[in-house]
Amino acid sequence: MTTYVHDIGGAPVIIGAGLAGLMTALHLAPEPVILLSRTPLGTDASSTLAQGGLAASLGEDDSPDLHLADTLAAGDGLCNEQMARRVVEVAPQAIQSLVRLGAPFDRALDGKLRLGLEAAHSRRRIVHAADATGHQLFHALLAVARRTRSITIMEDVTALRLVVAEGSIVGLLAVLHNSVFAMPTRRVVLATGGIGGLFRDTTNPLSSFGHGLALAACAGAELSDLEFVQFHPTALDSPRRPMPLISEMVRGEGAVLVDEHGDRFLTDTPGAELASGDVVARSIAHYLAAGHRVYLDARQCLGKKFAKRFPAIEAACRQAGIDPAVEPIPVRPAAHYHMGGVAVDADGRSSVGGLWACGEVACTGLHGANRLASNSLAEAVATSAWVAASVAGTCAGRQWPRLPATVPVRPDPSPMGQIVSNALGIVRNGKVLRETIGTLLPIAVGETAAADPALVSLLIAIAALRREESRGSHYRSDFPGRDAAALPSRLTLCTAFENAVALRWQKSERSR
Ligand SMILES: Cc1cc2nc3c(=O)[nH]c(=O)nc-3n(C[C@H](O)[C@H](O)[C@H](O)COP(=O)(O)OP(=O)(O)OC[C@H]3O[C@@H](n4cnc5c(N)ncnc54)[C@H](O)[C@@H]3O)c2cc1C
């Protein structure tokens, strides 16, 4: 392996070019910034796949207080209320800033933004661009980023390790094709997205395995709430991966969940089809495990209007040979969103000097034990401004990093699918988690392409084992009840040995 040093003049580096990375880079302008993307832009970012939209209290019958109440209810007691309040209060302004950047959101005849309804929202507050919000938004922002001279975009570059000296970032190691190089910088923003790619059934790009979590863990950063993985109740049940999503908005329009006989099975559940996502996902998983098939039936509420209202979803159904206007859509839950992540403060700073995190890889505490639908893009947009201000206000400096003796190979998460889906799916239990930790440990401390994905899976499994209760998206069949005294969790990877990892585990002191 040859490693050369790529001098970037100490500019900050953003790892990841989804919505969080793009917005952070745009907010940093005119400060020079390097934006890294593992693939050609937009080809493996969850941001481009978002259908529903962004939650903001813009309606006349709505307010930040109501949005906050819904967010806290979904978070099931573990949200950081201060952070949640801050995000919902700025969300309406964040939407206006996106409009100014060219976001083509849908408007009503009177010119006002059209607001959709999603599960567990008490008001219509989802700003969207038909059912391809992420795609439209991403490409509008990308066009602005490409015109912004202070942003240097580097595609096909994968960050492999952060280099730390005396508890602070001094650079990173990355690979372009087969060339490994070092970038000296004292400011790195992780914007690497989620972890769905660790699971067999996922709506995320298959490469989204939480690489940012592995980078942060190996740099000694604190990680928080890792056990909380949200499963979307209604992914299209076809062989296609990632699984196309049948957005909550379809249920918001009145579509109902039925079994193979056409019978609804959620009528006794408070909220029925619009109950919180984890309740709906668990009910569907339970029904599937009992040998039923589950369908989303939009024939009555939308029928022929389906294609006009949800063109991208209709196209995905058609590809699978289904016409949603006249047939029910087969659905099953799929790993969708990670509430846990790199523990950050109000400015997006991690516990390691010079390391920030933004977007899905970060854990701000907004989501607690479960995310309220469409709060994640709103969070990425809101927090990117705070992260950028904090990065810009930090002294740059430059120190040539002492390079590590070995460089990890480019990771491959594919061996994780079976292991992770069995142990860390919708229903978990201690016995399987313990066995899985034993399976993952040697892979995580090894040197194969599966090492980093296994490390992320291992840390999630440990967090899931330690949470001996059921709450939000985390359900333990051996601990089905709720522990009234439970707190958010935090862990730090201290050292990885040949057959063990040393962790610092602490109950979080962050406000709830
Ligand atoms: C199908 C689907 C629908 C969704 N719908 C909604 C919705 O309607 N509303 C909502 O609020 N949320 C939605 N979400 C969630 C939301 O889209 C994501 O949480 C959000 O887009 C994450 O943005 P991000 O910028 O953090 O990460 P991403 O958009 O996933 O971008 C991650 C970037 O990091 C790069 N990367 C990763 N590792 C490395 C590395 N080591 N080196 C270099 N680059 C790296 C990738 O190449 C990519 O560019 C949806 C998610 C999915 C999958």
TrEMBL record:
UniProt pathway: Cofactor biosynthesis; NAD(+) biosynthesis; iminoaspartate from L-aspartate (oxidase route): step 1/1
Record has Oxidoreductase as a keyword: yes
Subcellular location, principal: cytoplasm
Domain Fumarate reductase/succinate dehydrogenase flavoprotein-like C-terminal, chain residue ranges per copy: 456-486
Cofactor: FAD
Pfam assignment, any one: FAD_binding_2
Compartments reported by the entry: Cytoplasm
Protein family membership: Belongs to the FAD-dependent oxidoreductase 2 family. NadB subfamily.
Protein name according to UniProt: L-aspartate oxidase
Residues of the FAD-dependent oxidoreductase 2 FAD-binding domain: 13-377
Function: Catalyzes the oxidation of L-aspartate to iminoaspartate.
Reaction(s) this enzyme catalyzes, per UniProt: L-aspartate + O2 = iminosuccinate + H2O2
Domain of life where this protein originates: Bacteria
EC number annotated for this UniProt entry: 1.4.3.16
Matches recorded under InterPro entries: FAD-dep_OxRdtase_2_FAD-bd (IPR003953), FAD/NAD-bd_sf (IPR036188), Fum_R/Succ_DH_flav-like_C_sf (IPR037099), Fum_Rdtase/Succ_DH_flav-like_C (IPR015939), NadB (IPR005288), Succ_DH/fumarate_Rdtase_cat_sf (IPR027477)
